[in-house]
Specification:
18 helices; globular; Purple Acid Phosphatase, chain A, domain 2; seven-stranded mixed beta sheet; alpha/beta
């Protein structure tokens, strides 16, 4: 295995390769180029589907980068139409998927991903690599669903509560899609199939398993505090790669899962250990080459910035399929040791681009959730890509749903919409530590007890209208957007109406601030459209508890500087997932372009709370959300809090019922080995409930640009090199030519700040 290096051998090879390129000019893809003829490989790429079964509103891009609104984008039925079309064109096309599959919707959350798996198993995925949110239901669910070897833990009662809502028995038999002739396979991780792996989950309560190969080179068993067999200590959880043979061409697909999982909720990674993948790649690349791989594809959930860097360093990587950052490469990136450039979409490759590929360059592409399907047609010559055609196909209003997949999706949606009697099946989400006590003398099955007495309850149709908006609601910008402003304001407003808050010593003035996590996921709601309960759950498809604590000004500032650095660090391996936070009752000026100066400890230049400059020594009351199982001093990625309290609903079925403050049920040793204690109250206030209450308080239940628009400047960019820190524009700050090959990207892949900090000196 060699790092990218120009050698005499490579230079000599270039001449012979260049001579061969004449046969594969712009005409290479005319006519037969899309039809699987000799030397052409077609890769279909769809990633970060985020549990989205049905179509939704979206903002998509034309190939020139201009945006347009779509009423019904994505959804599995439309994705199936696009995939089927490509496979009709080339029956040997390979379908790759990487990134968050089982998380991102109410249907996925309340069934621990089973509703999504039952349907996506019919897509015909050839190879999959998990994303960070696929670990969101805990290691037991993850192992049972995706791992084909190693331990398969017995699912805990709280997980069984959710997994019993969907089973393989609920999958309708649809000719050509889910019948025996189609090859569709549905199985559950239960005692009948996984007894040899130690799983004693009662039949019918196991999670639905992936029926496609799942690969990751950088995920290991962690034995800390867990009774794992010695033979698997520090061994990989999944196969690192999968080999495919397409008409005699051997393709190796190596997977890299997200490395940031340990920075998320602590319950996500019990018994798992994550590495960056760069130390594994040399041996794995050598192994697939020894197995005869002629095309090496790495599909990675590390994010675009890190994936570009890896593709630059390893000359044997031919294609890097990137996920996690939710960017869309309208033009594929051509990456080599010295350059990262965007190839103009729809244009033939130049001779220079072809030579860069022949010299060991790689093609790097990314699609954005279910809103695009990528098609990459590769022309190979002597094991090198000599030409390619890339299209990020928008899944927009012009795409008709596949009727068979639409029927399968409808079966998964049926429990979440009102029937003829107007009733909806109750769903309960019970996070880590929540269990149901079964009646005496019965099996210890969670569904045997009354699940309505604790956990998050869903008793309404997901299409219930809960509000309206006159402006675009979408996590659309990396620093500040209208949606995050609305969410942060909503939690602050609801928290400040709880009388118990003012009775706490030191909290006599109520809640000072709130923040909204910088999630990348969530469906758009277009201007002048209704907001539904389904929309709210796409913005919060996890089950945190709304909580409150007090923090020093210094803790708040340090946390925000840390988050800014994780979004914009010039060392891409120090970047973390997500964008910046939404702020309520706070304003901040930041300098992304310059290094920290003596007047500031980070990128923050100034900050105010309630119109007053931040006092580093003052205690501020902070309401936001708590990830179940996390330490008792954390609110929305801010550590160091004290006087921790939760908001509890009087009636878990009624979001309008009374709210009171509740003490944590556990404060120490919350996670010991695989055991997680319940910390939040039985009927904790969920952010979706808080947002509904807030919508009810707004005139006409309407979100307006005037109230929440990003133009308010809650986060303002300034130039701290100039006296009085004048305002600077986003384009000047983060759209610098040296930190993005495509100014259409939401987040600059190479961070922001002095180029020197990226490890690159000069040009």
């Amino acid at each position: 295995m060699k790092l990218m290096k120009q050698s005499c051998t490579v230079r000599r090879t270039l001449l012979s390769t260049a001579l061969a390129l004449g046969a594969f000019g712009p005409q290479a893809f005319a006519g037969g180029g899309h039809h699987g003829d000799d030397g052409t490989i077609t890769l279909i790429e769809m990633g970060d589907l985020h549990g989205t079964l049905v179509s939704h509103q979206a903002v998509l891009k034309h190939t020139d980068g201009t945006e347009y609104n779509v009423e019904a984008s994505g959804g599995l039925a439309k994705l199936k139409t696009v995939v089927n079309g490509i496979r009709t064109d080339n029956p040997d096309a390979v379908l790759l998927s990487v990134g968050d599959l089982t998380h991102g919707s109410a249907e996925a959350m309340f069934t621990v991903g089973d509703a999504m798996m039952a349907a996506v198993n019919a897509m015909g995925i050839d190879v999959f690599t998990p994303g960070n949110w696929d670990y969101g239901y805990g290691a037991g669910v993850f192992r049972g669903r995706f791992a084909s070897f190693g331990p398969s833990p017995t699912l805990t009662p709280n997980i069984r509560t959710m997994s019993h809502y969907v089973s393989c028995a609920d999958v309708p038999e649809i000719a050509g899609l889910t019948d025996a002739a189609s090859g569709y396979n549905c199985s559950e991780a239960d005692v009948s199939t996984d007894g040899a792996r130690g799983n004693n989950t009662p039949e019918g309560l196991g999670v639905i398993k992936a029926n496609f190969p799942v690969v990751s080179a950088n995920l290991y068993n962690d034995t800390t505090g867990l009774p794992l067999p010695p033979a698997i200590h520090n061994k990989r959880v999944l196969n690192p790669y999968h080999m495919l043979d397409v008409n005699g061409t051997k393709i190796a697909v190596i997977g890299l899962t997200a490395a940031i999982v340990p920075q998320q909720a602590d319950t996500f990674n019990i018994g798992l250990r994550f590495r960056q993948g760069v130390e594994e790649l040399p041996d794995d690349i050598a192994a697939v080459k020894a197995a005869g791989a002629q095309l090496i594809v790495v599909q990675s959930e590390l994010g675009l910035s890190q994936n570009i860097k890896i593709a630059q360093k390893f000359r044997d990587i031919d294609v890097m399929y990137s996920a996690h950052t939710h960017e869309v490469t309208l033009g594929a990136l051509i990456v080599d040791r010295k350059h990262v450039t965007e190839h103009a979409p729809g244009q033939p490759l130049s001779w220079g681009e072809k030579l860069r590929l022949a010299a060991g360059g790689a093609v790097v592409v990314e699609t954005n959730r279910d809103m695009y399907v990528g098609r990459l047609d590769l022309r190979l010559y002597r094991g090198r890509i000599v030409d390619f055609d890339w299209e990020a196909i928008p899944v927009d209003d012009s795409v008709s749903p596949d009727p068979d997949m639409a029927a399968l999706v409808a079966a998964m949606e049926e429990p979440f919409v009102a029937g003829e009697d107007g009733e909806v099946i109750r769903h309960t989400f019970m996070p880590g530590g929540y269990v149901s006590s079964p009646p005496p003398g019965t099996l210890a099955m969670a569904e045997a007890a009354d699940t309505s007495v604790r956990g998050l309850q869903l008793t309404e149709d997901l299409d219930t209208v809960v509000g309206h908006t006159d402006t675009l609601l979408l996590r659309h910008h990396v620093l500040e957007d209208t949606l995050n402003n609305f969410i942060a304001d909503g939690i602050l407003a609801v928290a400040n109406k709880v009388a118990d808050v003012y009775a706490q010593p030191g909290w006599e003035n109520g809640v000072d601030i709130s923040m909204a996590n910088g999630f990348r996921f969530g469906n758009a709601v277009l201007p002048d459209h209704d907001i539904t309960l389904r929309d709210l759950y796409t913005w919060f498809p996890i089950a945190p508890a709304v909580n409150v604590a007090d923090f020093s000004g210094q803790s708040i500032k340090k946390s925000l500087d840390t988050i800014l650095d994780a979004v914009f660090n010039r060392n891409v391996f120090l970047q973390r997932g997500g964008w910046y936070l939404g702020l309520a009752n706070m304003r901040q000026t930041i300098d992304l372009k310059n290094r920290p100066f003596s007047s500031s400890s980070g990128r923050t230049v100034s900050m105010s709370i309630g119109g007053q400059p931040l006092d580093l020594g003052k205690r501020y009351v902070f309401a936001s959300c708590y990830g179940h199982g996390n330490p008792m001093d954390e609110v929305c990625r801010t550590g160091g809090g004290a006087n921790f309290k939760f908001f509890a609903l009087a009636d878990g079925d009624d979001y309008t019922s009374g709210i009171s403050l509740a003490d944590p049920l556990a404060t120490e040793n919350v996670i010991v080995g695989p055991v997680v204690k319940q910390v939040a109250p039985d009927h904790f206030l969920h952010p979706v409930y808080a947002l509904r209450r807030y919508l009810d308080s707004l005139p006409g239940n309407e979100v307006t640009e005037a109230l929440f628009g990003a133009g308010q400047g809650r986060v303002k960019l300034v130039d701290s090199d100039v006296a009085d820190n004048p305002e600077d524009t986003i384009s000047n700050q983060i759209g610098q030519p040296d930190n993005t090959p495509d100014t259409g990207f939401v987040q600059p892949p190479f961070g922001a700040g002095p180029k020197f900090f990226s490890g690159v000196v000069g040009n």
